[in-house]
Amino acid sequence: MKPMMDQVSLVAAIKRCTRVRELRAIHAHMVRANLTQDTFLTSKLIESSAVTLPGHMSYAHRIFSSILHPNPFMWNTIIRGYSISDSPITAITFYRDMSLCGISPNSYTFGFALKACCKLLTLFEGQELHSQIVKVGLDFETRVLNGLIKLYASCGCMEYARDVFDEMPEPDSASWSTMVSGYAQNGQAVEALELFREIQVEDVRSDVFTLASVAGVCGEFGALELGKWVHSYIDKKGIKIDLVLGTALVGMYSKCGSLDSALKVFEGIPERDVTAWSTMIAGYAVHGQGEKALQLFDAMKSSKTMPNSVTFTSVLSACSHSGLIEKGHQIFNTMWTEYKIAPQIEHYGCMVDLFCRAGMVDHAHKFIQTMPIEPNIVLWRTLLGACKAHGYNDLADHTSRKILKLDPTSPENYVLVSNVYASLGRWSSVSQVRSLMKDKTPKKHGWSSIEINFMVHKFIMGDESHPEREKIYGMLQQMSTKLKLVGHVASTVDVLHDIDEEEKQYALGLHSERVAIAYGLLHTPNGLPIRIVKNLRVCRDCHEVIKLISEVYNREIIVRDRVRFHHFRDRVCSCNDYW
Length: 579
Prior knowledge:
Number of helices: 30
Low-confidence stretches: 496-506
């Protein structure tokens, strides 16, 4: 380095730094030249070490501490650096110190401090910032308000986020994007879709992250037509389908039951990462196409993309849904031997599910007992379901008591156990379990949804809230009559209450998936598939009924339940009654 460098040369040298060692050399030159109190130069030094070359906050901190009177830019830079570091709480500390030193925060200060709160999910500190923003009169700044929306969305407070959004004088594309993404991430799919429609009305250009969020929502609801429209919108606007958007579209099409479209998008992604590969493999898995999932897994390995923990969950799930016992066991063993990935509880869960679905209940029980990590309640629930399905009554009783002992607070556990006792006809045990439920939070209702004309209609069991309820119940009656004519006799073993047979059959006839199918028969042309999404596992009787409906009404019916996809056609289901 030359003996003397002017300010312009030093700034240029700082900007060229790619390693902290180079930055330290320039800093040493500044010390020798007595330039450490040059606020402009030092601010650039702090910016480079805190932001441009992340991971060196302790060095940036030391430089900052050596300044006698740091200016607002320096304060903002150190706050910004910590907001994106592994210690965002320090950004909040510096924000408070800045105020104590009499330096007024500006819109950048609040933006960086809010980013730190988002990482920490600290609602209280965020609300404290909100009050300061109002106090200093920056509650009209779009940059600041977007930060507040992001904070509230990250903390799950979408009503607060919406209040901020609605009061914005001129929300920009980032404002709309953050709101849509917030609704999607917080499970408020209907609100996300409604806001996306407003975006179209307002002619706001959607960015990649908004479109990825909307695609994800379409996937959750199985809204294929709306998902296709989003895809066509992307093409029409000339938006490049990058890795993030492409992976979102693959997931959307897979969850909507259109694997061909998912594969087409997947093949169009130029450089696929492990997430893209895992998403496509998961699509094949949930559709019960285990062989194709394994072929894609082999292709992934051939592409030199290393599988991760999520990939193995998808592959093992594919083996489970397709009954590939030996292959699943082999892949499970290679996780550690070949890839040094220690199996986690979800991988053990896949193996238990694999054994249980194959009827290897004793094997599954032994596997749980010999696991190197503590089995969670989900594994015991899986075992209990297998005991019920395959008639392991003694083990079912033991497992039921185990579940209620491990987690006596969950109402879902009591429902599951009472379900097992009901299937065994042990109504006194059902009553005892039900009495224990009285002080527990009521179980969430099961629901089914169907998309008609870009609108998602959601139904619960015996739903009477829909404006077309009379037509729906008329169709349900017609369906019941036609099913009886072809010899259907309801299987009532899954009905939990000790009621007479006629009441049980009536209760089954009002399950949410049947209500959704009735609505689909009313509103879709003959010959078109009916697509249903259900948030719980489809029951045995409904599974049989939908097979019959597909034949009686000559319809393909596609149902995505909590476990997998079922493609019903001509009295046959793609799962081969294996779910």
